[in-house]
Amino acid sequence: MTPIVLVPGLLCSAEIFAAQATALWPYGPVTIASTLEGSTMAEMAAAILAAAPPRFALAGISMGGYICLEIMRQAPERVVKLALLDTSARPDTPEQTAVRRERLARAKAGEFEAVVVEATGATLHPDRQDDPELRAVNLRMALAVGLQGMVRQQEAIIARIDSRPSLGAITVPTLVLVGDSDPLTPPERAREIAEGIAGAELVVVPYCGHASTIEQPEAVNAALIRWITA
Predict the structure, then answer these.
(1) Residue 118's pLDDT band (boundaries 50, 70, 90)?
(2) What's the whole-model pTM score?
């Protein structure tokens, strides 16, 4: 059985993978990595590698996907399979960075919870932006990460490198999954990744925004089970 390491996204705790950890458990020991160490993508990846099994299947969502791509640069020989969920291989655009800086400033000024609520609405499928359960999950996770965690993670995201040039070096079986209505890392970003990795499978989840693992857990679980058992 292959150990499985799941990497959460920005302001996400282990709860982002609650349904997936349960679904994948029969296929190998599941670890949900901590993203609470390191101030750069390289440092976060190194910390996760230090705690990970010698060889493992690797999956990450959003910022977790950025970290997974960095892990593939640092230690490709340790990863046997890769899954990239709702993520992008591109660096931040100036516009994205400006939004992050504005939200960071507001969060530091005492508006942390308000910023989280606002950002959560912007990530979900348009029909589910007011879903009380999804909003509650996102707020719980953000509070678990905390303001300082948010600052560190956002700075790492802003400074991340362009991963597109290194996609061709990935040779392990790879799943690329995205919500059909993901407003942050839309399907064309997923398609770009899938086209850059030889043999990668692209799955577009219907009626789904950026937080696929909690918006459409059954569809994500089915894709991940196919991936881990292939």
Answers:
(1) confident
(2) 0.97
Residue 174 DSSP class: E
CB burial of 206-229 (b: ≥16 within 10 Å; e: otherwise) equals eebbbbbbbbbbebbbebbeebbe
Whether residue 28 contacts residue 5, with contact meaning beta carbons closer than 8 Å, is answered with: no
Q: What is the pLDDT of residues 28-58, one digit of tens each?
A: 999 999 999 999 999 999 999 999 999 999 9
Determine how many CB atoms are found less than 10 A away from the CB of residue 188. 10
The C-alpha atoms of residue 115 and residue 221 are separated, in whole angstroms, by 30
Q: What is the pLDDT of residues 9-19, one digit of tens each?
A: 999 999 999 99
**DSSP label of 162:** P
Cα of first residue to Cα of last residue in the chain, in angstroms, is 13
Query: What angle (nearest 5°) sits at the alpha carbon of residue 52, between those of residues 200 and 54?
Result: 80
The domain 1-230 is placed in CATH, from the list 3.40.50.1820, 3.10.129.10, 3.30.420.130, 3.60.40.10, at: 3.40.50.1820
